[in-house]
Structures are given as C-alpha cells and as structure tokens.
Amino acid sequence: MFAFLPSLGWQEMFLLIVIGLLLYGRNLPDAGRKLGRVVAQLKRGFDEFKRQIDQDADLRDMKQTLKETTTDLKRAADVPRAIANPVQAAKTMARDAMLAPPPDTAPTKTAEPAPQEEPRA
C-alpha cells in the first residue's frame, strides 16, 4: 500500500509531515492510529477473501474427485455385465468413446529428416 514511500525524497517527506501537522495538529497521533486500524481491517478483509477463494478451489477439487470416483465405480459395476454379454459391452464402450471429449495432448514435433550432403567430387 505504501509502495510509493521509498521513492520519496527527504524534501517530500518533510512537506508531508508539515501538511499533516497543519491539518491535524495535536490529533495527528489519533489520525495515525485510525489509519492503522483501517489498514489492518483492509488486510484482514483481503486475507479472509483469499482464504475463501482457496477454500472454494479445494471444494471444486473435491467435487471433481468425487465425480471421477463415481464414474470409476459405475465402470466397475459394468464388468459383470460385460462378461455376461460382451457384444453389448463393446457397443457401450464404443458409444462412450465417441461421446467422450478428446484427450488433451500437446502438439508433438515431427522429426524432419536430416539434410543429406551431396557427394564431393
């Protein structure tokens, strides 16, 4: 918040002190305390906001894990049916593969053939 203070020279600091004394006079310590309280409350508010965001991210991760586990359990329950009727299982697997989003794959570089040197005479 006070990142601009290191860039101030002694002249600017002196001017700010004089202005502060003129405006607040004997109440300058009280004004400083009030400013400190406001800064502390802002800091606590930002920390609470940050904690809430982190908690929401954790909940999202837990929901995703639960969803994946449910999917795995459904697939495990399909194993006895697949053994009993393999044709239907193959159809189901093909349909699921067609409906599933494509996997995230990074583009791979294809190896270019090395240039061949011409024979010297």
Describe this entry's structure for a reader.
The protein is mainly alpha-helical and 121 residues long. It has one domain. Helix content is 71%, strand content 0%. It has three helices and no strands. It has helices at residues 10-24, 28-84, 86-99. Helix 2 (28-84) packs antiparallel against helix 3. The longest helix is centred in the middle third of the chain and has 57 residues, at 28-84. The radius of gyration is 34 Å and the shape is elongated. The termini are far apart. 0% of the residues are buried. The mean pLDDT is 78.
List the helices and strands and how they pair.
Blueprint: H1 10-24, H2 28-84, H3 86-99
Shape estimate: elongated
Low-confidence stretches: none
Give the mean pLDDT. 78
Q: What level of helicity do the residues show?
A: over 70%
Structural category is: mainly alpha
Q: Supply the number of structural domains.
A: 1
How many strands appear in the DSSP assignment? 0
Radius of gyration of CA atoms, rounded to a whole number:
34 Å
Straight-line N-to-C gap: 75 Å
Tally of separate helices: 3
Characterize the largest beta sheet: strand count, sense, and whether it forms a barrel: none
- β-sheet strand percentage: under 5%
Order of helices and strands: HHH
Features:
single chain, 121 residues, mainly alpha, 3 helices, 0% strand
